Amino acid sequence: MTEATSTVRWAILGSGAIASDMVQILKQLPNCEVLAVGSRSVEGAKRFGDRWGIPRQYGSYEEAASDKDVDVCYIATPSLRHPQDCLLAIKNGKAVLCEKSMAPNDTIAKEIFDAAKKANVLVVHGVWSRFFPAMQKVRQIIDSGEIGEIRSARASFCQNDGAGSCSALLETGIYCAQFLQWVLEDKDVSGSPIVRGAAKTIHESGNDEHVTAIIEFPSKKIGSFECSLAHCSDRSATIYGSGGVIEIPFPFWCPTTVKVTKMTGLGSQKWSEPELYEFPLPADIASLKTEDADASSPGFNFCNSQGLAYEAAEVNRCFREGLTESPSFTTAQCIDILRLITEIGNYA
Predict the structure, then answer these.
(1) Pairing of strands 56-58, 32-38
(2) Which of 102, 110, 165, 289 is the most buried (most CB within 10 A)?
């Protein structure tokens, strides 16, 4: 365990769009330093490092991960490299925050977590949804019984972007699966969720581009989701209870709004006035100017990227407290989500 106010020093492995967003976040967190960047070339590391004022610039991921002064490695390399780069950081005794998906299946994810356990280092899978205050509010409403007994939930994450370049299940489906786990999991009931049905279409590249799935959770709860990289949806999620519904509108995977509507009477046709809960993004986080000669303001690349601050702050907290997993997204939960993703891919 380190001091609660000690500086946590990060290395960024990768120099793409999500890495740019995360660097801007980390540079604004208290007692946090972006010390190093590793890229596939010296030129790439220098370009990214100069742009964001990162002092140590390495032309390989290995050099960045082995920097003796680095505490945490943020894995933002191409997704097919995530497992080997997680293991690289772990081998060098670094804590890890890995962008999703950290592994293509639960078997490889378990190998990563087993290595982390042996090395006694923190590993967090960057499914950032878990750390948003709105998601915590959703769980609080469920636990309060405000909408009665929860029986089912659905999520949809379809975008017309990237079809064929990667698996829709691993790119957007993982957000749907983790949402269903978050709202339908009952820690007081034994048993694991079971895939009861799935269908998919395959891009000519061989990757799935559109997937739907039905999952049965313990306590007679049913979850369903649809994900795609070939067409659009409203990208919302809904939880259904015996006495009402909870709606999370776009973007449900990085939410700032929760709506609760209670339903009673004959045929559940008496609807209450909806209760709306708003959770603004962190007011003290903004896009930064670059530190190179251009001194431009490129902004963030992704929707609600300011919310990466919740995830990064949790990693800093866990590191300082000497934890090897985040209580908000445990090793077991992560492996179970990737098990579901694997089984859905095999089922369809």
Answers:
(1) parallel
(2) 102
For residue 211, the one-letter residue type is: V
Half-sphere exposure of 100 (CA within 13 A, CB side): 26
pLDDT tens, 44-91?
Answer: 999 999 999 999 999 999 999 999 999 999 999 999 999 999 999 999
Q: How far apart are the first and last CA of the chain?
A: 45
Tens of pLDDT, residue by residue over 291-339, are 988 888 899 999 999 999 999 999 999 999 999 999 999 999 999 999 9
Quick: pLDDT tens for 152-184.
999 999 999 989 899 999 999 999 999 999 999
Confidence check: pLDDT of 348 > 90: no
